[in-house]
UniProtKB/TrEMBL annotation:
It is a multi-pass membrane protein. The chain crosses the membrane at residues 22-42, 259-283, 357-376, 397-417, 423-442, 476-496, 712-733, 754-783, 795-818. It is found in: Cell membrane. It comes from Rhodobacter xanthinilyticus. GO terms for cellular component: plasma membrane. This is Drug:proton antiporter. Residues 263-378, 713-823 form the ABC3 transporter permease C-terminal domain. Its main location: membrane.
Length: 835
């Protein structure tokens, strides 16, 4: 009989006993795989939805967008000549009002062809001509949030930008909501004809005009894009098509999903500790069996094969259970998941995320199980029969090579599946570092426990607890490593969330304005300033000319070829002009007040450094379809964190003052005065849009909160896995605790003293894990808030205290569950039993 056949026979007979003793192994594997599978299925559903509904989400097969202008007659004719159908949509921000109530809204003005693809969902349903209105007033559809805030019902009158409208229906869903970019307020939809000729679309007003195009069947979108780019070169046109309807949403989904998968991998790493401990305990119990097999002539390869086959069968069971649980959880929550998304998705089984989760689970199980298995199978029979032979030792070199190779495969798979090389490498380094530090801390705790236990004379509870922690077979290592890693993930999330929210709360009252006001026409600026300076609650008003431009070239070369995908080069940015600098110059010189030569520009110093710019370089900026090439004359220290007026690009006045434009203003006032100021501005300057900074910050905080909650859910699986490991460690040590309790009772200890010793030992181990987690959490919080976000980080003590308390409670709960049996056992019965 071959060695493999012998190993299979041994494995088959061993498996007849069932999975008892492997519950922790299976639970750790199932939980980790289920979490990764669930995240992957949701991510795949969103990806499929974006791909399948690209045209509907975009509003057409393609979209041609112009900033702050409409297409000329010739441009419109060219677009219509290549398309089967065209719909014109104008997007802007405005103020909606009813009585004394005012609210910011993201306004969409549409023509009769809208929507080209899909349909609006309205309450109540209305006919296609509803936006024509009733009673001589144009109609409008409002987001339910906006309608409720203004107290409006269908048939009620209200104003948009100073124009009277009648609410025809509540807007429940629009098919192209995801393709229209970031919204600064609840949506409202009106007829484009109602806005033509008004101040909202006056020259210099801030709006975007989009032409959604439906092409004939079989049209080559790549060829159409090339033709459009060639036709509108230098005209400020931006193209998007249904192949990638919403790159921003796709990018956000992929990054968040990949991040959550990495968090799930941290949970699997915690489970790996439990897997390793379970396998080590199993092999400990099977030491006599292994010794007998070795004595009968079985080779190390046969013994390894027998155990590997058993572990492979158990791993397959765990993977199947994890994939089933993850898929079942997503299917059960498919309704709420679909309702929470702004577009239709179909939650269905997908092979890729399930295979990804299973691969991760299999690799983690193999890595953590091979270590104890390789140690045991290499030992001689005589040593295995002796207790001293079971002491820990490093596996042979070939086993370490295999474990290292499996780790490399795991890392490569994570990089490939996530597509985020930097984040994946950082996450792996953090988890590996955390495991090593926690293992060292566990060793240090055991060493300290042995030293402190000897000095705790006269304190039997303390001495007993410390002696048990420092014992050779103490569960302190497994407890501190597994719980510490789970708590570290939670601590990191808590410190980052608290740090960002704290930075916002600290900076907003001291430096931020109450409002940004946009679309102030040049002939309104003087009256606007006079009205605000006359209000006693307004402490400061700052204004600046406001245009938008796209940096297209740097020194005659395409900007992105020179400087990469920097945020300044993504889309259009605010542009202004000034006679005198608003910020301090860091390099170069400012132009004279009467300068009228070739265009000059001053660039924000930090962003210029990131783009690799220097004095004398030339920037080509497209503004309102016209390319302006300017020489860099200076760099300025612009602090965008103040949330005041700040521009990356400031031109000399002669370069831009003749172009149609509006003004931007920042208004500083206490929170109690904001409502009154907004009402006054809406009544006297209805075309001016006031954007509340505190409300905008609130929406950012809500978004941060949503991301934090999603991360906490994934991290929660890590913590649950850690608790399962704790339960396993407590269960495996139940016999040892029973013997310990029996000895202490024999020596005169009371049940209360013994329970106190058990509780103290558990509390000390939990506190050690919590303290290490606080260190990792604080480090992660500082790195994200300070280094990545550029904000001041302050340690959040409340989150830290909660982490330590959670660690103590978790270990106490896991140990006290099994303390009752140990305390209730009779000493004589326990002491007479063989070990």
């Amino acid at each position: 009989m071959s060695g493999l056949a012998v190993a299979a026979t041994i494995a088959r007979r061993e498996l007849r006993g069932g999975v008892r003793g492997f519950r922790v192994f299976l639970a750790c594997l199932v939980l980790g795989v289920a979490a990764i599978a669930a995240v992957g299925l949701v991510r795949e559903a969103i990806r499929s939805g974006l791909a399948d509904q690209g045209a509907e989400l975009l509003g057409g097969d393609a979209r041609l967008e112009f900033t702050y202008r409409a297409a000329s007659a010739e441009e419109r004719a060219w677009i219509e000549g290549r398309a089967g159908a065209v719909s014109e949509v104008v997007s802007l921000r405005s103020m909606a009002g009813s009585g004394d109530d005012r609210a910011l809204t993201q306004l969409k003005a549409v023509d009769d062809a809208y929507p080209l693809i899909g349909a609006l969902e309205l309450d109540p349903p209305v006919g296609p001509g509803a936006l024509a209105g009733v009673g001589g007033l144009p109609g409008a559809f409002l987001d339910p949030l906006l309608a409720d805030r203004l107290g409006l019902a269908p048939g009620d009158r209200f104003t948009l930008g100073g124009i009277d409208f009648v609410l025809m229906a509540r807007l429940l869903r629009e098919p192209d909501s995801l393709g229209t970019g970031m919204a600064f307020g609840p949506r409202s939809i009106v007829s484009l004809d109602a806005l033509r000729g008004t101040a909202l679309l006056a020259p210099g007003a801030l709006y975007e005009t989009e032409y959604r195009v439906a092409f004939p069947q079989g049209t080559d979108l790549a060829a159409e894009k090339a033709a459009a780019v060639a036709r509108f070169e230098g005209a400020g046109m931006r193209w998007a098509d249904s192949r990638r309807a919403s790159p921003a949403a796709e990018r956000f989904t992929d990054r968040l999903g990949s991040f959550l998968v990495l968090v799930g991998l941290a949970g699997l790493a915690v489970g790996g500790v439990g897997i390793s401990a379970t396998v080590a305990g199993w092999l400990e119990r099977k030491a006599a069996t292994v010794a007998t097999l070795r004595a009968l002539g079985a080779s190390g390869a046969v013994i390894r094969g027998a155990f590997l086959i058993q572990l492979a069968v158990l791993t397959a069971l765990g993977l199947a259970g994890g994939v089933t649980l993850g898929a079942g959880a997503v299917w059960a929550a498919s309704g709420p998941i679909a309702a929470a998304l702004p577009f239709k998705v179909e939650i269905a089984l997908s092979a890729r995320p399930l295979a990804e989760a299973a691969l991760y689970g299999a690799l983690i199980a193999a890595i953590f199980a091979l270590w104890p298995l390789a140690r045991m199978s290499e030992m001689r029979a005589a040593l295995l029969y002796r207790a001293s032979g079971r002491a820990r030792r490093v596996p042979p070199l070939r086993a370490l090579v295999v474990i290292g190779a499996l780790g490399a495969v795991l890392l490569a798979a994570a990089v490939m599946f996530s597509g985020l090389k930097g984040l994946t490498l950082a996450a792996f380094a953090a988890v590996t570092g955390a495991l090593l530090v926690l293992a060292l801390v566990a060793r240090g705790v055991r060493w300290l426990a042995r030293r402190a236990g000897a000095a705790a004379r006269g304190r039997p509870i303390w001495r007993t607890a410390l002696a048990a922690m420092g014992a050779p077979r103490s569960e302190a290592g497994a407890v501190i490593v597994s719980l510490g890693l789970g708590l570290s993930v939670l601590a990191a999330v808590g410190q980052v969330d608290a740090g960002l929210r704290g930075a916002i709360a600290r900076d907003l009252p001291k430096t931020a304005p109450a409002f940004f006001a946009i679309d102030i026409q040049p002939d309104q600026l003087a009256a606007f300033r006079d009205r605000l300076t006359g209000m006693p609650d307004v402490t400061k008003v700052e204004t600046a000319p406001m245009l938008r431009g796209v940096i297209t070239e740097i020194n005659g070369r395409p900007a992105r070829e020179v400087a990469g995908d920097h945020w300044v080069l993504r889309g259009d940015r605010g542009v202004t002009y000034a006679e005198a600098p608003r910020e301090a110059l860091t390099e170069g010189a400012w132009w004279a007040p009467d300068y009228a030569g070739p265009p000059l520009v001053s660039v924000a110093a930090k962003e210029a450094g990131e783009l690799g710019l220097k004095l004398g370089d030339r920037l080509t900026v497209n503004i309102l379809g016209r390319d302006i090439e300017a020489e860099i004359a200076s760099f300025r220290a612009v602090d965008f964190a103040t949330m005041g007026i700040g521009f990356v690009l400031t031109f000399n006045p002669a370069a831009l003052s003749a172009a149609p434009h509006s003004a931007l203003a920042t208004i500083y006032a206490p929170p109690a005065a904001e409502a009154g100021i907004m009402r006054a501005l809406a009544q006297e300057f209805p075309n001016v849009t006031a954007i509340g900074v505190r409300e905008t910050i609130g929406r950012v905080s809500e978004a941060l909160g949503a991301i934090a909650r999603a991360t906490l859910m994934a991290a929660g699986v890590t913590l649950v896995t850690g608790f399962v490991v704790l339960i396993g460690a407590a269960a495996s040590g139940e016999a040892a605790r029973a013997r310990e309790a029996a000895l202490l009772k024999t020596l005169g200890a009371t049940r209360g003293m013994i329970l106190g010793a058990f509780a103290l030992r558990a509390a000390l181990m939990g506190a050690a894990a919590g303290v290490v987690a606080i260190g990792f959490g604080g480090l992660a919080g500082w790195a994200v808030v300070d280094l990545v976000m550029g904000a001041e980080f302050r340690f959040a003590p409340a989150s830290a205290i909660a982490i330590v308390a959670g660690g103590v409670v978790a270990v106490l709960a896991a140990n006290l569950i099994f303390a009752r049996g140990a305390l209730g056992a009779r000493p004589a019965q326990v002491l007479r039993a063989p070990e």
